[in-house]
Amino acid sequence: MGVYSSIVCRNVCLLLLFLVTSPVIVSSREQLSSRECENLGFTGLALCSDCNTFAEYVKDQELVSDCLKCCTEDSDDSMSKITYSGATIEVCMRKLVFYPEIVGFIEEEKDKFPTVKVQYDYNSPPKLIMLDDEGQQKETIRIDNWKREHILQFLREKVKPTSASS
Questions:
Q1: The sheet that has 116-120: what strands, in order across it?
Q2: What values do phi and psi take at 3, rounded to 5?
Q3: What Cα–Cα distance (Å) separates residue 44 from each residue in 25, 72, 143?
Q4: Is 147 helix (H, G, I), strand (E, B) or coil?
Q5: Phi, psi angles (nearest 5°) of residue 22
Q6: What's this model's pTM, rounded to 2 decimal places?
Q7: 3-state secondary structure 88-100
């Protein structure tokens, strides 16, 4: 009887362990909207491998779980194939003086991208809001430290060219 009860106890303990940890596993595959991720502090195109590296240094399981809900699965070419119909550069006009690269892009390069608009929003950090065919927000990317060339290259790769230029 002693061996049987220890096997049953072990199986019950394993089952309880599975039931306790499975919601964490399931919820880490849940995706949050880009707005929810931004509110949590996760913006940009973070890859899930970044979250795994993050987990090595940060021992807060809830924070790592939030990261996993906001990341993009790593794959050879997954991000390079995604394109958008347009974009909005959102920035606080008062803070523009601190971002000369973004000012340079807006003043000298933005006209090369007819589907890219500039929106001034009080206290907003500089970001690119990528838009789908219906003009709905699909991705938000912080661009605080981007150089003008980085913005140009990113928009050339990610924003669909307009069909007919007049």
A1: 116-120, 86-91, 127-131, 137-142
A2: -70, -45
A3: 23, 10, 8
A4: coil
A5: -65, -35
A6: 0.55
A7: EEEECHHHHHHCH
Q: What is the pLDDT of residues 50-100, one digit of tens each?
A: 787 778 777 888 988 888 888 877 665 555 578 899 999 999 999 999 999
Q: Which residue has the tokens 């608009």?
A: 117
Task: In whole angstroms, give the CA distance from residue 85 to residue 166.
Answer: 18
Tokens 């890859």 correspond to what residue?
47
Cβ(106)–Cβ(148) below 8 Å: no
Torsion of CA 49, 50, 56, 61, to 10 degrees: -90
Query: Could you tell me which of 77, 51, 75 has the C-alpha nearest to residue 63?
Result: 51
137-147 pLDDT per residue, tens: 998 999 988 99
Give the integer Cα–Cα distance in Å for 144 and 142.
Answer: 6
- The one-letter amino acid at 101: E
- Per the listing, tokens 């979250």 go with 51
CA 27 to chain centre: 17
Q: Tokens at residue 96, please?
A: 């523009």
